[in-house]
Amino acid sequence: MEDPVDITLATYEAAAGTYVDVSARPGPTVPGFLDRRVALIGEGMVLEVGSGPGRDADHLPTHGLRVVRTDSTRAFVERLRARGPDVRLLDARTDPLGGPYRGGLADAVLLRLSRSGFEDSFGPHRRGPSR
Ligand SMILES: C[S@@+](CC[C@H](N)C(=O)[O-])C[C@H]1O[C@@H](n2cnc3c(N)ncnc32)[C@H](O)[C@@H]1O
Fold first, then answer.
1. Which residue's alpha carbon is at the smallest distance from atom 12 of ligand 1?
2. What are the residue boundaries of the Methyltransferase type domain, all occurrences included (predicted)?
């Protein structure tokens, strides 16, 4: 059976422009949520899985964090690169995550993974070589 995540990603790929145009901008609670995350992390490098249009990550550097933006949808990666930020094409299910990181952010990504899929994607065996 096809992985449902692949269907979701194919939809993002086909409709990235529409997503950017019509999806709601972050509501008033999102900056507060991100601010609380930052307070927990402190300073350093943060991995964002699923940067999409980059709205969350745009907020974080104002706190002195270095955000490693990643997404598995090539259309989002190309759109983000076109407006400036560096971003890696990365599928969290299969690609090395790199690191070490002080923290991670994955907004509306993890809900698509089963429990075992989450462990496969983010378990200790999936870390890349330490740098
Ligand atoms: C709702 S969007 C995230 C929005 C983004 N955080 C923002 O600030 O606008 C979810 C993103 O997760 C990405 N995604 C879904 N599954 C993924 C995976 N396995 N690995 C990497 N990215 C994934 C999608 O391509 C999509 O861009």
1. 50
2. 47-113
Full strand arrangement of the beta sheet holding 44-49 = 87-89, 65-71, 44-49, 103-105
Does any ligand 1 atom lie closer than 6 A to the CB of residue 93? yes
| pLDDT score of 66 more than 70 | yes
Fold of 4-22+43-126: Rossmann fold (3.40.50)
Q: Taking the domains of the chain in order of start, what are their residue ranges?
A: 4-22+43-126
Q: Which atom of ligand 1 is nearest to the CA of 16?
A: 27
Contact 69, 86 (CB under 8 A): yes
